[in-house]
Amino acid sequence: MSAPGSSTDDFLAMLAAERGAARNTILAYGRDLEQAEALIGGALDAATPAQLARLGQGWSSLAPATLARKVSALRQFFGFLVDEGVREDDPTHALPRPTARRPLPKILSHDQVEALFAKAEEEAVTGTPASVRLLTLIEMLYGSGLRATELVSLPVSAVPRDAPFMTVIGKGGQARLVPVSRRADKALKRWLPLRDADSPWLFPSRNGHLSRVRLFQLLKELAVRADLPPEKLSPHVLRHAFATHLLEGGADLRALQTLLGHADISTTQIYTHVDAARLVKLVNERHPLARAPSSD
Q1: Is 273 part of the annotated catalytic residue set?
Q2: Is 278 a catalytic residue?
Q3: Is 271 a catalytic residue?
Q4: Predicted TM-score of the model (pTM)
Q5: Which of 65, 107, 246, 296 is the least buried, fewest Cβ under 10 Å from its Cβ?
Q6: What does the alpha-carbon distance between residue 175 and residue 166 come to, in Å, rounded to a whole number?
Q7: Per DSSP, what are the bridge partners of residue 155?
């Protein structure tokens, strides 16, 4: 890594302190900057556009996603240098341009979500621990946008008592408040008397808490019973549905970033592509001029 006190170290410290970046993200960015400096053969903070342009050849064999991450790291680094007054120009226009776009997340339609919940609620009427637990799990995945790991590892102490929020420990050990909907709260109240009271976990199992793999299996099985394609359902898909449906309903992107626990707004912006595709489809199908016959 660069010498202590360098611009690179200042940048990485800023990522940790101001953006709450996870340790693995900081290490990856540090390696990216170090490797770029080695390729240009000089101090990175003094790099010229011509030197940055040569990185394209050195990175020509990289996978598109890896190239995109390296370019992102450099753009953020030079943006930091400009903000801090270390340099007046931003040479990143000379960086190679990744052509691959991050794939859009799979999402469920509103009708599919309703079908899934209708089946889970129908089964939970029996009052069996397994059916009530499953209803609670999907209420919290879709109602709070939790990651699978965050959900299965929730301690019972995280269940809210007075306020409609719970504290969740996300990636990089970052804590955030997530809302608990009225529906999820109702499901939790049904589930708590049925769980193993001696376990510290909200969703206990014989080996500690429910595993991510088992959660995945439970959702696939529920999809089959709800006459939905099982390949369309996973914890991630319900999280994506939470985000997309909130955005469709008018949620602010910054608020969505906070709810999802994203360290960088660029991660949240993928959902604008999902919503944009929906809006284009809406205009093409519903706008009066889209159906009007063209004139010669």
Answers
A1: no
A2: no
A3: yes
A4: 0.57
A5: 296
A6: 10
A7: 201
